[in-house]
Specification:
CATH architecture of the largest domain: 2-Layer Sandwich
Number of domains: 3
Shape: globular
Distance between the termini: 40 Å
Largest sheet: 6 strands, mixed
CATH superfamily of the largest domain: Probable tRNA modification gtpase trme, domain 1
Number of strands: 17
Helix content: 10-25%
Strand order of the largest sheet: 8-9-10-7-1-11
CATH class of the largest domain: Alpha Beta
Order of helices and strands: HEEHEEEHEEHEEEHEHHEEEEEEH
Length: 337
């Protein structure tokens, strides 16, 4: 169960429009405690993760973080993991509800290795901060400026916490024990961070193109079409799913490409996109912006996945105008195209 502020309103929650504006243009904060969190320790932990996942993990210095994908043999994502080295072990962020899937996958391939994986989702809380004024707000309460893919132990309102800047540089995560969550939340609000409700967070997530398990990646995608290249090393040796991913890269066999879109009207996830009456893609997420426009994400056939290109939503007069997802541009290598 996600943390809930003792007041029942999560510290004077802003409205959807105000919350979205803060996340996009100010300093906003969303309760993301439903995100899975694992504590991983053991002398063989990093080696096992390196052998099983897509990114290079031979070393992960204290305070450093890295994205990686646990993939099946046919390169279907089990989950996208963010691993951060802290306190003699690793803190691992999973997708919502995917922590047990990650635990089970690691357990399947553990044969005598010294590794302990603990689900710490319930006893902790997690807040996501975004917006250009976040660094100033954090500095006001004595928190460090972090580069992307870095994390550090901090103290907020006399409570121990972890501050983590994500791989895109667009988000900061604050993770604290659930009993201290009220105090940490309130201290951040007092520093000028605006609490944003879930609908504001979802609109912001879609607007920046942050991929979500079960929507933009999952059982029916591969990590390349979901624009997870920032979590994949092209020159890494063997790992589960490596042969398939290598063939997709080498022979340019990726069929779809995750794109952002602005819709001219209403559409639902799962709606088909067409070009000249031919299948061109599928809408994966939709959320209304406060200005009344509809933000969307879509998996689009590579030949049609061009910024500014307009596709029709099948069976309607709605037009989807494509753009590059901001999150993908911030995380994938610059030569990906």
């Amino acid at each position: 169960m996600a943390w809930t502020h003792a007041s029942g309103v999560r510290g004077h929650m802003a409205g959807a429009a105000e919350g979205y504006a803060a996340l996009a243009n100010g300093a906003g904060m969303a309760d993301r405690s439903e995100t899975g969190r694992l504590r991983i320790v053991g002398k063989d932990a990093l080696d096992l993760l390196n052998r099983l996942s897509t990114n290079k993990l031979e070393a992960l210095p204290p305070g450093h973080a890295r994205l990686t994908v646990l993939a099946s043999p046919n390169a279907r994502p089990i989950d996208l993991l963010a691993l951060g080295a802290v306190d003699g072990g690793m803190l691992c962020l999973t997708s919502v509800g995917r922590q047990q899937a990650a635990i089970d996958w690691l357990d399947t391939f553990t044969f005598g290795e010294e590794i302990v994986v603990e689900d710490v989702t319930a006893p902790t809380a997690q807040f996501a901060l975004a917006g250009p004024r976040v660094p100033a707000a954090l500095a006001d309460i004595g928190l460090p400026a972090l580069e992307r893919d870095r994390l550090a132990p901090v103290t907020i309102a006399d409570c121990p916490a972890t501050l983590w800047r994500d791989a895109s540089g667009l988000l900061w995560h604050v993770i604290a024990g659930a009993p201290q969550a009220d105090a940490v939340w309130d201290a951040l609000v007092a520093a000028g961070v605006t609490p944003a409700p879930p609908e504001a967070w979802e609109a912001f997530r879609v607007a920046i193109g942050l991929p979500m398990y079960g929507r933009e990646f999952g059982d029916d995608t591969n990590p390349l079409e979901s624009r997870l290249m920032g979590a994949i090393s092209e020159d890494k040796g063997c790992y589960t799913g490596q042969e398939v991913i290598a063939r997709l890269i080498t022979y340019k066999k990726v069929q779809r490409r995750l794109m952002a879109a602005t819709l001219s009207g209403q559409a639902a996830p799962g709606a088909a996109l067409v070009a000249d009456g031919q299948p061109a893609g599928v809408v994966t997420s939709v959320a209304p912006r406060p200005d009344g426009t509809m933000a969307a994400l879509a998996l689009v056939r590579v030949a049609k996945a061009r910024p500014g290109h307009m596709l029709a939503v099948e069976g309607s007069s709605v037009i989807a105008t494509l753009a590059e997802p901001r999150y993908a541009l911030a995380t994938e290598p610059p030569d990906v195209g």
